[in-house]
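Folds abound. Consider this:
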Amino acid sequence: MEVRRPVAELGARAYAIQLLSDARIPFLVGGAYAFAHYTGIYRDTKDLDLFLRQDDADRALKVLAAKGWSTKHNVHGWLHKAFWDDFLVDLIFASGNGITVVDDGWFEHAVRARLLGCVCSVPAAEEIFWSKAFVLERERFDGHELAHLLLKAGRTFDWQRLLARFDRYWEVLLAHLMFFRFAYPADRDIVPERVMRALLSRANGSVAEGNWDVRLCRGRLLSQVGYQVDIDEWGYEDGRAWDEAERRREREEEAVPAASGSYGAH
């Protein structure tokens, strides 16, 4: 059954977009609105999702607060919330697992759109696919949205960029592509053959490699609650904490050459 949101709620969403646009704060309209832009599938949504770099999200929260919005800062460590009466806007700057951080690339490849009567931008389809791919909770699984997004927009995907986004999480991408092949066997060629062969080759290589030396459960990158028992009771090391440490180490290594160049050789 179709759900129609009150005019006041839609007005609050448009008001938030206008306020941030007037303040020249870069943001992207995501969630159901961006999904509809690419697929034509409109679904009800209880809030407006705006994607921003973290510094811009901090600024946006102050702008909305100054205009009478109630605000909550740094909820769960990856978003802010703003309320106009009971109407909610989420200011999202990362994901719950810390992987899909909103960075400059989101804006470099953004697409212009007209939503809620406002001219704004939505994330590129690749960023939407990347961010939704890790949502595999019991009460929330976005697999069907990924399949529909791939069906409707996949022929325009920048596959090299998407592969780079997934990087060491390539198995998650391969899993979703296999679901797509199952759901749409007559549309398999939407995913280039070279992409499938490259990922399947990596999968074959991982079979030959065998088990990792570290007894990790990386499931908490997909469902934080669903895999908690593995950490609490079954003796697995928390793959989420391990992954955060790896990403921190990589950032530190990237910073070393720049630092070394600044001081020269001594």
User: Anything to note?
Assistant: Confidence is low (pLDDT under 50) at residues 262-266.
